[in-house]
UniProtKB/TrEMBL annotation:
Protein name as annotated: Polysaccharide deacetylase
InterPro entries in the record: Glyco_hydro/deAcase_b/a-brl
SUPFAM superfamilies xref list: Glycoside hydrolase/deacetylase (SSF88713)
GO biological process: carbohydrate metabolic process
Length: 305
């Protein structure tokens, strides 16, 4: 095992992240002397084919047929319907798997999906242990080209809609396409969020400073995210389960040296919720639930540890 010690003067580019956060902090500890806290975040993003004037769209998106990763053109049903599958089938399959394994999960919803997909908001809220806000839609993102007023309104409207339609009071945020601007973290804090999951910056929760003080960055690694590994990286699916198992084993072993670790699993209904992939989700969650060194929590609970 090789651990990299960050130098105290390492340059950190994320805004409001303490520049010496790794070299000088005390080891993280968990209740019951557990070595690894795992939180599972299931994504239920909705793709909006008709985007409002002025909205910022991503240049590329994963999913659909073929190897084309450009942003789908209007009316491309073959590509768009794979995202819809996540809302009509995939997210419910993953919720059922989590329930059978006894693993608490959070589900991220965007304003468009919560408002337009019948039964989605209330149905998910009745089964998930936490609801997370995921912006306006899968393909309407935050951008530095937005003014502060527009960005604040985007965040506030998404939170209000998801809260109202689910009957919950979300405290977590995950941006579509992990999009952010330099001021997003301070705006999230102002709108009442206590954590966000976009930055794969660490293996434990990180408290921000400066204008974003009291906001927690809860890392969700790209390397263990199903969409990123399988669609962006093109990892053979047969290797994905092995990657998850080896990640869990390594983090548990690292805890003896560094203090407790956190793993934020980030899974999409339209990816791991497919029938052909569901057995991997089932075996992984059962492994987590039976592991004596693992503490299973929701993302919000992990951020509060």
């Amino acid at each position: 095992m090789t651990l990299i010690a960050h130098p105290a003067d390492a340059t950190v580019f994320a805004p409001d992240l303490p520049a010496s956060y790794d070299a000088h902090r005390a080891p993280w500890s968990l209740p019951g002397d557990r070595r690894l806290a795992v939180s599972v975040l299931l994504h239920a993003p909705s793709y909006q084919d008709d985007v409002p004037d002025g909205a910022v769209k991503p240049l590329a998106m994963a999913g659909g047929v073929g190897r084309d990763t450009s942003e789908p053109a209007h009316g491309q049903v073959a590509r768009l319907s794979q995202w819809d599958f996540g809302l009509t089938t995939g997210i419910w399959r993953l919720l059922s798997i989590a329930e059978r394994a006894g693993v608490p999960v959070a589900v991220s919803l965007d304003e468009h999906g919560a408002r337009t997909v019948p039964g989605l908001a209330r149905g998910v809220a009745a089964r998930a242990q936490e609801i997370v806000v995921r912006g306006s839609a899968a393909n309407i993102i935050l951008s530095p080209t937005m003014g502060e007023h527009a960005e604040r309104a985007y965040i506030a409207n998404a939170r209000e809609s998801v809260a109202r339609l689910t009957g919950t009071s979300p405290t977590g945020w995950f941006g579509p396409e992990r999009s952010m601007t330099p001021r997003t973290t301070s705006l999230l804090r102002d709108e009442g969020f206590s954590w966000f999951g976009d930055w794969p910056v660490d293996e434990r929760p990180v408290a921000l400073e400066g204008a974003s003080r009291r906001l927690i960055a809860l890392p969700h690694p790209l390397e263990t995210e199903d969409m990123f590994q399988l669609y962006t990286r093109g990892l053979p699916f047969a290797d994905y389960e092995t990657l998850l198992e080896e990640t869990i084993e390594q983090l548990v072993a690292d805890a003896d040296v560094t203090g407790a670790r956190h793993l934020g699993l980030s899974w999409f209904g339209w990816v791991l919720g497919q029938a052909c992939f569901a057995d991997v989700a089932e075996r992984t969650l059962r492994l987590l639930a039976s592991h004596p060194d693992i503490l299973l929590v929701t993302p919000g609970e992990a951020a509060a540890l």
